[in-house]
Design goal:
Layout: H1 3-17, E1 21-24, H2 41-44, E2 48-53, H3 64-67, H4 72-77, E3 80-83, E4 100-104, E5 107-111, H5 114-124, H6 127-138, H7 144-152, H8 159-183
Parallel strand pairs: 1-5, 2-3
Antiparallel strand pairs: 1-2, 4-5
């Protein structure tokens, strides 16, 4: 997906529910980056936009039938809106102040900053999330030192989620170090 496709989807949502501000929290939050053209394909493969309406988050669930998976919009455009709760992701303190705004009247996408998104994806730990984070690290868009710093500012679901996230970051750090030493030869 690209930013134009995302903004058309959000414009369709605005027509249906009247809200103009959407918080994009999943993989496609990377589309908010100024240097989005530097984002590798593995970071923009998703066909679903995980988001919620800023002013009235539960309202987004009313859009599922028209814009969600299997909807007429999905069938016609190959992409869909995946309504989510603002309480879904594990995010570091201050994430809302770092949202990146993309304004395309009549809508505004409030996209997670890429390192905040990486913390959330590492906490979830699904293979596709780890591929997304690895691609971002390799492209220089995600900073492991910044992710580690943000993790210190994160309230995890529980001790198990925190420990699993720390192990994933340690594994990524090891892979990243091996790649760097291999490229220095």
């Amino acid at each position: 997906m690209n930013i134009d496709v995302l903004m058309r989807l959000l414009a369709a949502a605005q027509v249906l529910c009247g809200h103009r501000d959407y918080v994009v929290i999943g993989s496609l939050s990377v589309l908010g980056m100024a240097q989005v053209e530097a984002a590798p394909v593995d970071m923009t493969l998703s066909i679903d936009a995980d988001c919620y309406t800023l002013a009235d988050p539960p309202r987004v669930f009313d859009l599922f039938e028209a814009l969600g998976e299997g909807s007429p919009y999905h069938q016609a455009h190959g992409v869909y809106l995946d309504p989510v709760s603002p309480h879904l992701p594990t995010l570091p303190d201050g994430w809302a102040q770092r949202l990146i705004l993309v304004k395309r009247p009549p809508v505004v996408a409030h996209c997670l900053e890429v390192n905040d998104a990486a913390v959330s994806k590492l906490a979830r730990g699904e293979p596709r999330d780890l591929r997304w984070v690895c691609a971002g690290i390799q492209a220089g868009l995600i900073s492991l030192p910044m992710v580690r710093l943000r993790m210190r500012q994160t309230i995890f679901l529980d001790a198990d989620e925190q420990q699993a996230t720390e192990l994933r970051v340690a594994a990524l750090s090891s892979v990243s170090a091996q790649q760097q030493s291999g490229s220095n030869r």
